[in-house]
Amino acid sequence: MKGDRRDSPKKEEKNKEKEEDMLPELPEEIILRILSFVDAKTAVQTSVLNKRCRCLWAFLPVINFDDASFKNVIFFEDFVDKFLSCRDTSTNVFNVNFDCRFGLYNDYFVDIIIEHVTDTPSITTTIEVLSIRAMSRITNLPTLSLCTSLTTLKLSYIFTQTTNFDIPSLKHLYIRSCQFCCGLVNTFDPVKGCVNLESLPLIF
Length: 204
Description:
Distance between the termini: 65 Å
Strand content: 15-25%
InterPro entries: F-box-like_dom_sf, F-box_dom, F-box_SCFL_complex_component, LRR_dom_sf
Organism: Vigna radiata var. radiata
Strand order of the largest sheet: 1-2-3-5-7-9
Structural class: alpha/beta
Number of domains: 2
CATH topology of the largest domain: Leucine-rich repeat, LRR (right-handed beta-alpha superhelix)
Shape: globular
Region (Disordered): 1-21
Domain F-box: 20-73
Oligomer: single chain
Protein name: F-box protein At1g60400-like
Order of helices and strands: HHHEHEHHEEEEEEE
Radius of gyration: 21 Å
Number of helices: 6
Largest sheet: 6 strands, parallel
CATH architecture of the largest domain: Alpha-Beta Horseshoe
């Protein structure tokens, strides 16, 4: 009995090591599926597990940017910029989520995200969900009309002069605490051009 108690910590340590080694042994499709549920920074950190995982993050089908694990917004923006520059642009991406609780240093930083989405064919033709939560100005929302498969758009805390979305494929549009500067001439009409829209939750 005493011997069993003495050996138990060693067994627990070995079991823990086995669990840590399981991820690299899985098929790449399964690993990418798992990494799609974590933020991009965590996905990149898995590259240290072994050589096989070194570049898997560059092929993520779902990209989650979250500033929660960054010391400040400058580090966060720098990471996002480098991630987009180094990822494999031939990989199809279905979801892009950008969540920033900081006030962005670059007031138009979200435009960079949208530009990457609309300028990358492998994303433009496959993206289904785009979620943006950031206190930021956005000037290029209208270009999302190029995303022929986009069905869900979630916007929170953004400021834009866009008065309509004109995204025919869009089915679900979520707007939370956003500012739309329409001026005296234009009127805010989010459903204009969204001929397939099924839901439009508005929270101000």
